[in-house]
Amino acid sequence: MWFKNGVKQEGEYDGGRETKDIIKWVVDKQQPASTKVSCDTLVEKIDSSQNNIVAYFGPSDKDEMFTKAHLPYAEEEASIQFYHNIGEDSCAFNIFNIAYPSIMVFRKFETK
After folding, report:
1. Can you list the domains of the chain with their CATH numbers?
2. What is the pLDDT along the chain (112 residues), one digit of tens a residue?
3. Which terminus of the chain is more solvent-facing, meaning fewer CB atoms within 10 Å of its CB: N or C?
């Protein structure tokens, strides 16, 4: 069982039975679901990651797109890296050519 803010969360622990596996699972559960990053850091994460990334670009972490869409999904999906870039509207438009606010998925494809 896992509780967050006093509320029992769905799912059970299904990882390894070694101490290091259990500790890693607990530490991962305690991390924020989405990490705030600068535009430059987000570009670096996208370029260096082999994993899928979901990023929110918006004016505030109080914006409904962040609180009702991005964050709830980030809390449920552990296999994807989630980041948010707050207050840098030029990042969304100039670097990624998207509207502001937005949620964008960055996906790596295997090439042969």
Report:
1. 33-106 (3.40.30.10)
2. 778 778 787 777 888 999 999 998 888 888 889 999 999 999 999 999 988 999 999 999 999 999 999 999 998 888 899 999 999 888 898 999 998 899 999 998 776 5
3. C
